[in-house]
Structure of EF-hand domain-containing protein:
Amino acid sequence: MPQTTKDEYLQKKFDKIDKDNTGKISAADFRQAILGDYRLEAFRTTTIDVYITELSNHTGRITFEQFKKFMQADTYTLKNSLFTIEFKQAFDEIDTNKDGFISSQEARQGLTLAGQHISGLCFNQIIQMFDDDHDGQMSFEEFLNNIKILWHE
Ligand SMILES: [Ca+2]
Ligand SMILES: [Ca+2]
């Protein structure tokens, strides 16, 4: 599809949500409209909420440009902020003492809670693999960087 046709198509979609024709849609209307989007199936709703807040620049309103940015975003790439938000939430859940680092003990507990059976030995290896600065803990940056490497991005 040529870009202009695509824009027209998106504009029509946007206008449909923008019932009062203000050129902006509320975050709630936007959320309602995109929740059924198959591209979002992999993400939890809390992640989508944070994403919408960031997309709207914390204004609670979505402009056409922001709408377009979402519609044209590739959600299958780790460059997409949805992934960063999702990973950050998972990271924060595992980081139970909230010091910004995942120790091997936290990692072990975190994954036991998630119902996965990974042995303690295996976990130490994962932490070692991800622990780029060798301080014995995994920071969010280390976590994200290594996931990107594993995904070849
Ligand atoms: Ca911690
Ligand atoms: Ca580290």
In short: The chain has a mean pLDDT of 86. Residues 95, 97, 99, 101-103, 106 surround calcium ion (ligand 1) (CB under 6 Å). The helical segments are 3-17, 27-34, 45-55, 64-71, 81-94, 104-113, 120-130, 140-150. Residues 85 and 153 are 17 Å apart (CA to CA).
